[in-house]
Amino acid sequence: MDFKALPKIELHAHLSGSISRQCLHEVWVQKKKRGETELEDPLIVMPEGKFDYNLDTFFPLFSKYIYGLCNDRDSLIYTTNSVLQDFASDGVVYLELRTTPRAIPSHMTKEDYVSTILSCISASNATSTLKTTLILSIDRRNDLPTAQEAITLATKHRSHGIVGIDLCGDPTSGTVSLFAPAFASARSAGLKTTIHFAEAPQTTTPDELWTMLSYQPDRIGHVINVPEDVKSEIRRRKIGLELCLSCNVHARMITGSFGDHHFGEWWDGGRGECVVALSTDDVGVFGSSLSNEYSLIAQHFGLGRQEICELARGAIDVIFGCEEEKERLRGLMWKE
Ligand SMILES: CNc1ncnc2c1ncn2[C@@H]1O[C@H](COP(=O)(O)O)[C@@H](O)[C@H]1O
């Protein structure tokens, strides 16, 4: 099967983690020429073929490196356009890109950051089969006012393509119960919500999981260390699941390899109660495109062409985009 040609939906992709190493390298070359960076070449810091980032090495890669390189308007525009182009070339027809609003001192406010990305998206949407919307992320390390600021920005720019709010960041830090008022305001503003859920065993306590479920998320991501009673509740509510195979395997977030991934359990031979949206998470770091994720699923879980099409089309029901977009996707995506 040609997994690249298969029209696909991507619902869990972090902007800064989706930038290819080649693109980071190009940004670095330009900055180096102008004497604007002391950082090392991305192709040395993140060598081609290195994907074994774990939860200890992964998060500092952003705070200590990628944010240091993508630190002005030009690099934000260049990298965002490159990410959109990469998803389009991989056969993605609908993308919900997510990013944490980031002020860049002496360059951009958080609002500039968000509107710059929205302009890139709007220009891309005008000329491409790929249609993209934006989700704003709250980082677990944020405080409540910072989280509320993300909701305010999302509400203000909703008509320009923001569809929801995400809770992400290092799963071993932060206190999720802090964010109850932020999720309440997101819901009352009519924004959809998704939450990184049960990513790390050490912080996945029943208390944290039930607190997250009390925020009534429309979708949840990763969904790894989940006790049976929580699984039953997820199934009862039919929450959409964003599952990221390669990320979980490379970062050793699961035990075993591809064939041991909990995709098998949730998909359940096509009988699972919840929609599974296969996603890449951070293709720039873990190196597996969405078409490759579909190929891995076919290979390790024995899905044939018909089932692969069902899996891909299934995600239509859990996008945060509008009914009109769902109709476009129903017409575009393969039935068999
Ligand atoms: C294992 N997978 C993951 N789990 C949790 N949070 C993740 C993540 N992958 C990425 N992020 C979050 O997204 C930020 C980078 O993109 P943006 O600067 O927002 O575009 C990271 O700093 C982290 O907070």
Overview of the molecule:
The longest helix has 18 residues, at 110-127. The radius of gyration is 19 Å and the shape is globular. Helices cover 46% and strands 14% of the residues. The mean pLDDT is 97. With 336 residues, the protein is α/β, with parallel strands linked by helices. The protein has one domain (8-332): Metal-dependent hydrolases (TIM Barrel). It binds N6-methyladenosine-5'-monophosphate. Monomer. GO terms for molecular function: adenosine deaminase activity; metal ion binding. Belongs to the metallo-dependent hydrolases superfamily. Adenosine and AMP deaminases family. InterPro entries: A_deaminase_dom, Ado/ade_deaminase, Metal_Hydrolase.
Question: What brief labels describe this structure?
Answer:
336 residues, alpha/beta, TIM Barrel, eight-stranded parallel β-sheet, 15 helices, 8 strands, globular, binds N6-methyladenosine-5'-monophosphate, hydrolase, A_deaminase_dom, metal ion binding, Ado/ade_deaminase
